[in-house]
Amino acid sequence: MLTRQELVQAEKYLKLNESGEFVIDTDEDLEIIDFHTHMCNVLPIKHSNPKSKGNKLTFPTLPPIEKTDFSVPYWTKEELNINRKGIMPIFHYAQNAYAVLQDMKKGGTYDNCFKSQADNKIGINVVLPLSTKKCDCSPEALRIVADYPNRFIAFCSVHPDDPEMEEKIVKYKALGAKGFKLKISDIELKNDFKPLIRLFRTCHEAELPVILHTGSIPVDQERTSKLLWKFLRSTRVELFGRLLEEMPKDFVFIFGHSGVCEYKRVAEYLKRFPATYAEVSSQSQHSIKYLIDEVGYEQLLFGSDWPALPQAITLSRVLMATAENKEAKDHILSKNAKRLLNQA
To answer: In degrees to the nearest 10, what's the CA dihedral of 333, 339, 340, 342?
Structure first.
């Protein structure tokens, strides 16, 4: 059976540290802003103390070594023939999502964050809270920046159905939030996007960029239950393209994960909507290179989705995709983010 060490031996810019964790392997002097991270106290579950120590991340989001393929988005070998009908696939999907959140809650601490930043030459993490109707995580994200202003930048997050949505967004911007984050599966399942459009318009008026999880893994509809199919497709890129049609052309929208396996469709929307960006966490070197070739590098942002995923893997993909183009590398790793966030 393939080992993790054998896997990285064939990978440029990627190695294992003393703990067997993926870290970047380069001597380059890099300036990096990670545009897609979370912390243990900004998740839609009971918060943990980010100052806690001794908790190790296991990254259950990563595929098993034998199913790992870094040449495709989400680094997982395609298995289109999986039978996802019935109740058990839904149960397993929910069980895996719960395991991922629990790992992030346990290991998304300052200690683990600062070690990952040091191991991977990352200067700043953009912290994206995940609020629900019952849990507003924005104050925690802002508190992280107050504790370590040179290490983090905070976005805010307010559910579209929150009766104080407009007031909260204005308040959080005044308190230092630099953008807005949301995950919308529950909204799509109800097929009512009017609250989301109102939220987008509020963010546009407040001059806050918006980043959402976009895209999904390949799924065979004929082998998938209707409910699971609808959920897995609830963040499809086409949906966000339709919503962008409702917005002013200068609305700044960021396709989180670059649409996962739908990165080619994201490229088309980046061309149609010049104020949009693609954040490349979970992408491969080939898909990142495709985006560069199709739309250039000034609409692309490095992100990792830490602590759901290691910072090193997507970073190594960016370095591979830009190995012959230093200007593209510098823009994707930090210059585009600094311009978007009005950082000096």
So the answer is: 120
* pTM passes above 0.90: yes
CA dihedral of 300, 301, 302, 304, whole degrees rounded to 10? -110
Average per-residue pLDDT for the chain: 92
Asked if 216 contacts 235 with a C-beta cutoff of 8 angstroms, the reply is yes
Determine the average pLDDT of the residues in 30-47. Answer: 95
> Does residue 2 fall inside a structural domain?
no
Contact 279, 253 (CB under 8 A): no
Question: Model confidence over 284-294: pLDDT tens digits?
Answer: 999 999 999 99
- Domain count along the chain: 1
- The tokens describing 52, both together, are 């806690």
The partner residues of 180 in beta bridges, in order of sequence, read 156, 210
Strands 22-24 and 14-16: antiparallel
Question: Which range of residues forms the domain containing residue 271?
Answer: 30-340
> Is residue 15 in a domain?
no
Average pLDDT over residues 16-26: 95
| Partner residues linked to 153 by β-bridges | 126
Place of tokens 């990670």: 34
pLDDT in tens, 184-201: 655 555 667 888 999 999
Those residues with Cβ within 8 angstroms of residue 244's Cβ, 6 or more apart along the chain or in another chain:
251, 253, 269, 272, 273, 276
How many whole angstroms separate alpha carbon 54 and alpha carbon 62? 21
